[in-house]
Amino acid sequence: MQIKKRDGTLEPYMPEKVVVAVVKCGAPYQTARDIAASLSKRPESVMNATDVKTYILTELRSKGAAKAADNWEAYDRKHKKK
Fold first, then answer.
1. Distance CA 25, CA 43 (A)
2. Please, what is the Cα angle at 18 between 1 and 42, to 5 degrees?
């Protein structure tokens, strides 16, 4: 799978990047690995970065890690002005 970044460039999907980001926002390591693995199994050949973010946040909430999802969104609001 390829990830289409906001600037339009493509980069290969790297599950480790998802794991690191999810752990940094406060989710347990195993939850982060599970989310990265489930994202790897999606059928799309290209996914927009915003769709990846939405998927991750939805998965965090469904796995009982709503606080981690909130932390992620708070970081985005503060640092990415979104």
1. 26
2. 35
Among 37, 81, 82, CA closest to 59: 37
pTM: 0.88
CB 76, CB 25: distance < 8 Å? no
Is residue 82 over pLDDT 60?
Answer: no
pLDDT on residue 79: 84
Distance CA 9, CA 24 (A): 25
* 11, 3 contact by CB (below 8 A): yes
Judged on CB neighbours under 10 Å (0-12, 13-18, 19+), 7 is exposed
